[in-house]
Design goal:
heterotrimer; A mainly alpha (298); B alpha/beta (319); C mainly alpha (258); A: 298 residues; mainly alpha; 2 domains; two-stranded antiparallel sheet; 13 helices; 1% strand; B: 319 residues; alpha/beta; Rossmann fold; four-stranded antiparallel beta sheet; 10 helices; 14 strands; 34% helix; globular
């Protein structure tokens, strides 16, 4: 081939070989970088007000970007099964400073700020402060009161304040009627499984965020598990009365004719009895890992 | 003054330069002259002499430091006066993305013409400068010569009484220059006044009724090309062929300029016939006899040299 | 006055034929596609992302055009000497300036309208049908145009008496300064002298206040923008432009061309 004809071919070879080399090198560099940073995500600028100033007139756009980053951060932390989530609050802080009206940030943020590990940051007081900020900026959005009541109920176990929050939210004409009902019920009875199930159902049905839905579902399943375990404990009591000892496993109960078949948790794993004869989730069940750390058996 | 299209009086222009614009360069000093109705006036001078400066002053592109000028009786500050004058800038450049037709149409819109009138004139102008075939091509693709022709077209589009051209022949090949010359002559025939600047003396000699010579920002002389140099005939020039042999007229040959077998010899008018006899006797073949006049070029060079000497003297003596 | 319109139409035509503009608009449309994509990452804020990204793109691209083309409006013509033949016509210098301003403004209006159409198309795609409340996005676009008009006027002014590079720096600088005018007005500082504070307050009224036109948050969350604000902003922009253009005309009238 003559020289001019070879040039395109030569270029093609250079491009292919060159980019192959680049790809190889990049993989090597990536490996190096991973070992360099423990935390791949760092937040260099943590000051919301400074960022707002620097964003000129594009603060809402920057808020969207930080919100996207927050969602990605939570998602990747979760799947990596690490428990710290210490960047969650700074990210939420920045997002809502840049755009105080980004409602999804408050709902998502308060839930996962308050949730104990492994599913959240375990900072319920911060979550409450966060929600109050959201309510100040968006006084018309009644769902924030719902979330506030939620946190008081589940994480702070302060049923007085929970009831007040539900009541306050129910004053908004757009609020659903159950807010008022719930305010009364919580005020009277404090915690009850019925209430808990209702609240998580409400979250599950009213949100379109995949993470929140998944979280609510997990909670519902855990509550189901709790209910089942309580019923199994009652049956174990009965068994103990009859046989003089508590059952070793559910098969004992089946054999004693107390239950028709081996009960399983919502994920299909059989319940087990611990050393003291109390029912609990099967350790092999993923649901067991979802239990808040303080609820797990030693 | 009746009959004067352009009247310039004591026009002066200083350019500030240097740090904080404190120093001044005087590029035009006390210019006073007139251009009569219907004449072709040539503005001559070396580069940087002040020709373009004068024309830009007339056109209101720059403002005088002192002095006044009137065109067709109106002061140069009067914008409406521009209706009656056409202007071709030096080395014209026009809008990249317009075509020649669009450019002419654009410029034509500044005059109160009807749409039909505008169309007709644009067509006529394009034809006149020989650009009809290129009319739909965008100007960024035009050669220098073509741009010059468009420039000429836009200058005369609106039928102006006075036409002012700044270096109209620059960048043109001989054919192009011939065309421009013809257009200028035609404009003159139509009774318009034409002022153009050039540093090509041959064009000035050929076209102008009068010339004004500017050197170093000052007007050195105004008059018909002949007058200005004075018809100082320097005698006659004989062109002859001599191949050798016969009585060698060595004395004559030594004074002549030689190209191969041809010789040019200058003699005083009185000695002409004697010399011719001598050459004929020597067997030379006489080709031509012409009168030698002092040329515009010599006059010109003389002025430039004088000006440079003066400038040097000023530097040396710091006056 | 109609002579200014002639210059305006020609300026517009020239801008349209300059292919750079098409690239910019194409880029903007690409942004909208990206916005739709980004919105899908977090479904709840799809609409918010489209509006904020879209308005940001319209604003940034419009600003780029206003500054770079605006600065070239006069200086390019002076550099390339296209101005010579033009000013030899019976047209006044201020008419020329006004025409340049109008032509670029027209170009910006057309481009912005095209991009806004893309924005609404993207919005319709994620939430058909569109509601009446979405009209607030149009108001935000209109405010962006007002802002651009002001920037063009400034660019034109600087273009009349300084080099293109400096003109770009001055214009961009004034734009950024104009965004912080409100901070300048109520400066919270324990250490600054009261005289200085007073001077800054006074300066803050003199500078063009670009934050007046910032309604992106409202548009993103569908909050209505009061008609009074629209009227006042229009008047502000018109008045400020008039001041700047008058200054430009004065500077340019006395300018000796090269």
């Amino acid at each position: 081939m003559s020289a001019p004809k070879m040039r395109p071919l030569l270029l093609g070879v250079v491009l292919v070989a060159g980019f192959a080399g680049v790809w190889r090198l990049q993989r090597g560099i990536d490996a190096q970088i991973v070992s360099l940073h423990q935390e791949q995500d760092e937040l260099v600028l943590r000051s919301g007000p400074v960022l707002k100033l620097m964003s000129l007139e594009y603060a809402p756009l920057l808020a969207d970007l930080y919100w996207t980053r927050t969602v990605q951060y939570y998602g990747s932390k979760n799947t990596r099964a690490e428990h710290q989530l210490d960047l969650l609050w700074p990210l939420l802080d920045i997002t809502t400073t840049l755009d105080p009206n980004l409602l999804p940030a408050y709902r998502f943020g308060s839930t996962f700020l308050a949730e104990p590990a492994p599913r959240g940051a375990g900072m319920p007081e911060q979550a409450i402060e966060f929600l109050n900020r959201g309510i100040r900026a968006n006084p018309d959005y009644w769902r924030l009161y719902q979330d506030l009541g939620f946190i008081y109920y589940f994480d702070m176990r302060d049923y007085g304040k929970a009831s007040s929050a539900f009541l306050e939210g129910s004053k908004n004409p757009k609020a659903l009627p159950w807010m008022k009902v719930l305010a009364a019920r919580v005020s009277e009875r404090g915690e009850s499984r019925e209430t808990s199930v209702f609240l998580w159902n409400e979250v599950y049905n009213s949100t379109s965020d995949a993470q929140l839905k998944k979280n609510a579902l997990t909670h519902l399943r855990l509550l189901r598990g709790q209910e089942d375990c309580e019923q199994l404990d009652a049956l174990a009591e009965e068994f103990g009365k009859r046989r003089g000892r508590r059952p070793d496993n559910v098969q004992d109960l089946v054999n004693a004719g107390l239950i028709p078949g081996a009960p399983v948790d919502p994920l299909g794993f059989v319940y087990v009895f611990d050393a003291d004869g109390f029912a609990q989730l099967n350790p092999a069940s993923p649901l067991a890992k979802d239990q808040p750390i303080y609820q797990r058996p030693m | 003054m009746a009959g004067a299209s352009i009247e310039i009086e004591n026009l002066t222009k200083d350019y500030p330069f240097g740090f904080l614009h404190l120093k001044k360069k005087r590029s035009l000093e006390g210019l006073t002259m007139t251009v009569e109705d219907g004449e072709v006036f040539g503005f001559l001078g070396p580069n940087g002499a002040g020709k373009s400066t004068t024309i830009k002053l007339l056109m209101g592109l720059i403002f005088p430091t002192a002095g006044t000028a009137r065109i067709l009786g109106k002061p140069i500050s009067d914008i409406e006066m521009h209706r009656d004058i056409g202007y071709l800038p030096e080395q014209p450049y026009f809008y990249d993305y317009l075509t020649a037709a669009e450019l002419l149409d654009y410029f034509a819109r500044f005059f109160d013409l009807t749409a039909a009138d505008r169309r007709e004139r644009v067509e006529r102008m394009l034809k006149k400068v020989g650009l009809e075939t290129a009319r739909k091509i965008q100007l960024r693709k035009y050669s220098k010569g073509m741009l010059q022709r468009v420039g000429l077209a836009q200058a005369i589009l609106h039928d102006p009484k006075v036409v002012i051209l700044d270096e109209p022949m620059s960048g043109l090949d001989p054919l192009g220059r011939r065309e421009v010359r013809d257009i200028i002559l035609e404009l003159k025939r139509q009774g318009r006044t034409i002022l153009f600047s050039t540093h090509i003396l041959g064009d000035a000699e050929m076209l102008c009724d009068r010339v004004g010579v500017i050197v170093g920002g000052r007007l050195r002389g105004v008059g018909a090309p002949d007058e200005i140099v004075g018809v100082k005939a320097h005698g006659m020039e004989i062109l002859f062929e001599y191949a050798g042999g016969g009585g060698e007229p060595s004395r004559l040959l030594s004074g002549a300029t030689r190209t191969g077998n041809r010789y040019r010899l200058q003699v005083e008018e009185g000695e002409l016939y004697a010399t011719l006899e001598q050459l004929r006797g020597a067997g030379a073949k006489i080709l031509s006899v012409t009168q030698v006049k002092a040329s515009l070029e010599e006059y010109f060079m003389h002025l430039v040299e004088a000006d440079r000497a003066q400038a040097a003297a000023v530097e040396v003596y710091g006056k | 006055m109609s002579r200014a319109a002639v210059v305006a139409w020609n300026t517009f035509r020239e801008a349209v034929r300059d292919r750079v503009l098409y690239n910019l608009v194409f880029f903007a449309l690409l942004m909208f596609a990206a916005a739709i994509l980004v919105g899908q990452i977090s479904i709840q804020i799809e609409q918010i992302v489209i509006v904020t990204l879209g308005l940001s793109a319209i604003s940034v691209i419009g600003l780029l055009m206003a500054v770079f083309i605006g600065v070239g409006l006069v200086s390019k013509e002076m550099d390339k000497r296209t101005l010579y033949a033009l000013l030899a016509k019976p047209v006044r210098r201020w008419e020329f300036l006004l025409g340049k301003f109008g032509g670029l403004l027209l170009t910006l209006v057309v481009n912005t309208a095209a991009m806004a159409a893309g924005l609404f198309a993207a919005l319709w795609y994620v939430k058909h049908p569109l509601e009446r409340g979405d009209a607030v996005v149009l108001v935000a676009v209109y405010f962006i145009l007002l802002k651009l008009a002001l920037v063009v006027a400034l660019a034109l002014l600087f273009s009349c008496y300084t080099t293109p590079l400096l003109a770009i720096l001055f214009t961009a600088g004034l734009y950024v300064a104009g965004l912080f005018v409100n901070e300048m007005r109520d400066l919270q500082s324990a250490t600054m002298a009261p005289g200085m504070k007073a001077f800054l307050r006074w300066l803050s009224y003199l500078l063009p206040n670009f934050s007046n036109f910032d309604v992106m948050a409202a548009a993103a969350h569908g909050r209505a923008i009061p008609a009074m604000l629209a009227a006042q902003n229009t008047a502000y922009a018109a008045l400020y432009c008039a001041i700047v253009l008058a200054a430009a005309a004065t500077v340019f009238s006395r300018r000796n061309l090269k």
